[in-house]
Amino acid sequence: MSEMFKKIKYFFLALKEKDLQEKLKKTTKKSFTNKTSKKVIGGAADLILNSETLKLVDEVKENVSSIVKKTNCNPDELLAYVKAAKTPVYKIANADKILNLIKEEEGLIYEKRGIEAFYLSMVTGRGISFKTPAMFVLRDGVIDKFYMLHNFYRWYSLKSGLPAGTPLAGHGLNTFCQSIPVITTIVVLYFFAVG
Known about the structure:
Blueprint: H1 2-28, E1 30-33, E2 38-41, E3 46-49, H2 51-71, H3 75-84, E4 89-92, H4 95-100, E5 107-109, E6 112-113, H5 115-124, E7 131-132, E8 135-139, H6 145-160, H7 171-178, H8 182-194
Parallel strand pairs: 4-8
Antiparallel strand pairs: 1-2, 2-3, 5-8, 6-7
C-alpha cells in the first residue's frame, strides 16, 4: 500500500516539476527587439546586440554636429530646421507653467495620447484631439542656445529611430512614480538603486 502512495506522490511531483520547468523557460528566455537592437535575457547572462544602434548613435552625433556648425548653434535656425522637417513648433507665453500641469518641460514633447494630448491640443490650438505628434513647445522669447541644442539632439535622435529617442523610453517608471505618493516613490527608487 505504501508503494502505491509513493508512486502517486512521485507522479504528482513529476507533473509539478514539468510545470515549473515550463514556467522557468517562459520567464528566463525573453527577447526584446526594436529597429536597432535586440536584448536576450537568459538564465546565466544577458546578451545585447546593438552594433546598429552604436552605428546610428555615431551617425546622429555627426549629423547634429554638422547641422549645429552650419547654423552656428543659433536656436532660431535650429527651429527652422525642425519646422522644415514638418515637426510642429509652438511658442506660447508662460509655456513652462502651462506644461507643468501635465508634468512636461519646455522643448521637445514626445507623442502624447489621451487626456494629456487633449490638453496639449487645446493649448497649442490644434483643435480637439486625443493624439498629438512629437512637437516643440517653447515660451515666447529668447531661447538659450544650449537648451535648444539639447532638445534638438533629442529630436534628431527621435527622428533617426534611436531607442532612447522613442516616446515610451522611461515612460513606465515616470507613470508608476506619478501614481503613488511621494514617500513611497522615494522608497521604491531607493530599492531600485540599492537592488
